[in-house]
Write a structure and sequence with these properties.
Strand order of the largest sheet: 3-4-2-1-12-11
Radius of gyration: 17 Å
Order of helices and strands: EHHEHEEEHEEHEHEHHEEE
Structural class: alpha+beta
Number of helices: 8
Number of strands: 12
Shape: globular
Helix content: 10-25%
Length: about 260
């Protein structure tokens, strides 16, 4: 099972930058998209389905905002839209698919960059997500959580840790949540395979075009797994040269 997680920052814009041509290269069996900024009807989804994918979309109620989708060549046993948290579901942030004993959750974590109100909501959302995962594990113990977490966990996950110590996405409370989440029996697949690698970023600010050329980025996109899937993990990497977005795709492969 090859999985990609990718924040497209607007899938319609990604289409115009060669997204379909990239899908034609067969990069993965399952593509988890965040920040679609569109409904299924807004997109020529038949181009995706023509490549052998079934497509599942959970869009925000607000037009052109947030939204997640999963394109899969492996038929799921169950698809669940949202995770029963009102504001999060209104914003189209979580979609769940079950494949046999494995549950895949694709999530677009809130950003706190627009101000204190959204930062406060981000902390609420993080606590709700951890509670949701803990409840789910009682009946579905094997979980893969893909998505844009909007958190750089440690100093080697960000190009300038000192300069960003007060930036949303690298605040002490956010990093502490990530530490707590991993301590609850989850593994960061990229860091498990690449424990000391620096410069492996998945997002670059669009404010300054040179930032990506100079690789002054953040690693805020993750494919995390419960520890009981550790022995099934066979690889994890990042694809910085794929450029349809201010993020790039991240990849993990499992032998299930």
């Amino acid at each position: 099972m090859r999985i990609i997680s990718y924040n497209t920052n607007g899938i319609r814009a990604a289409f115009k930058k060669g997204f379909i041509e990239w899908l034609q290269t067969d990069p993965a069996d399952i593509i988890c998209i965040q920040e679609t900024k569109a409904t299924k009807e807004d997109v020529d989804y038949k181009q995706i389905e023509a490549l052998g994918f079934e497509t599942y979309w959970f869009s925000a109620q607000k037009k052109g905002y947030s939204g997640v989708a999963v394109f899969t060549k492996i038929k799921p046993d169950l698809v669940e839209y949202g995770h029963k948290k009102e504001q999060s579901d209104f914003e189209g942030r979580v979609i769940r698919l079950d494949f046999g004993a494995v549950t895949l959750i694709n999530a677009y974590f809130p950003s706190g960059t627009s101000g204190e109100e959204r930062q406060a909501y981000k902390y609420i959302w993080l606590d709700e997500m951890l509670g949701y995962l803990e409840d789910l594990r009682k009946t579905r113990p094997q979980i893969i959580l893909t998505g844009d977490y909007n958190i750089a966990h440690t100093d080697i996950d960000i190009h300038d840790p000192k300069g960003n110590k007060n930036s949303s996405g690298f605040l002490p409370e956010e990093k502490a949540w990530m530490t707590k989440f991993l301590a609850h029996g989850f593994i960061d697949t990229y860091r498990f395979i690449n424990p000391t690698t620096t410069g492996g970023y998945s997002w670059w600010s669009q404010r300054f075009p040179s930032v990506r050329l100079q690789n002054k980025g953040w690693r805020i996109d993750y494919i995390c797994i419960t520890e009981n899937l550790k022995d099934k993990l066979v690889g994890a990497t990042i694809y910085p040269d794929v450029k349809h977005s201010d993020h790039c795709p991240i990849f993990a492969a499992f032998k299930l």
